[in-house]
Amino acid sequence: MPKEYITRLVFDPKHKTLSLIKDGRVIGGICFRMFPSQGFTEIVFCAVTSNEQVKGYGTHLMNHLKEYHIKHKILNFLTYADEYAIGYFKKQGFSKDIKVPKAKYVGYIKDYEGATLMGCELNPSIPYTEFSVIIKKQKEIIKKLIERKQAQIRKVYPGLSCFKDGVRQIPIESIPGIRTLLRTARKELKDPDQLYSTLKTILQHVKNHQNAWPFMEPVKKTEAPGYYQVIRFPMDLKTMSERLKSRYYTTRKLFMADMQRIFTNCREYNAPESEYYKCANILEKFFYTKIKEAGLIEK
Questions:
Q1: Could you tell me the pTM of the whole model?
Q2: Could you give the CA distance from residue 134 to residue 127 in angstroms, rounded to a whole number?
Q3: Residue 27 half-sphere exposure, CB side, CA atoms within 13 Å?
Q4: Nearest to 98 by CA among 73, 124, 110, 80
Q5: Same domain, residue pair 7 and 124
Q6: Does 275 participate in catalysis according to the annotation?
Q7: Number of domains comprising the chain
Q8: What is the pLDDT of residues 62-93, one digit of tens each?
Q9: Which of 4, 42, 173, 217 is catalytic?
């Protein structure tokens, strides 16, 4: 982009610029224009200096821009991307499926010939600037779970010696322990209709319980101030019913994880002496009783 073009936009009072500074010098930035009355922001350009590219700085900038707009209650981005920028914007959640009604942006943003109009709808419940930290924590948790599971393994199979004799390839099923693992996996997926029926019955029992009333539908912002700032991954029985109907729960573990999230979220947001907290504890015990009765976990 010509320096004159960048300078004119950066110093135009109608535009704002988010800059990325490293070691006292600017290495990147996003120039944008907000249209609060129309409910969107136009990203005019996004650039990172050539010797600092492919280091995650572009994503870092975009995530901070998303957080800034969520705070200002503007949840839609529009931009015209040339053929070299389409890949970057796709990685940032942009697509050619524009959610903003055409009447909202026509006449407000310039149509660039040869460029592709792309849009991005922001989700206020997503902590965009915390992605890297969340992923790191997830990896740590998964690693610990694997280590814990490995520690529980009682049977240790000997290593393969056939490769020392010149064998280059063997069927995966012939590896000691794999056949047992595959048999276990097939058993869980053997009859998806039976699993669906079992989970449906359990979910109905939970919904009919007298202490299920706080968890029947998504928490309303008006009834629980700041809930979605505290609880990043909400869950409720209505959402679980919809997921069950769409056959999302292909394993018992997915089903149990969502149910457990309901109870965990409740205890995280509410005080231990609250009625909601007590309901979560009672319903959790009831749920696991039903899970055991159905034979989905050991008694």
A1: 0.50
A2: 9
A3: 15
A4: 80
A5: yes
A6: no
A7: 2
A8: 999 999 999 999 999 999 999 889 999 999 99
A9: 42
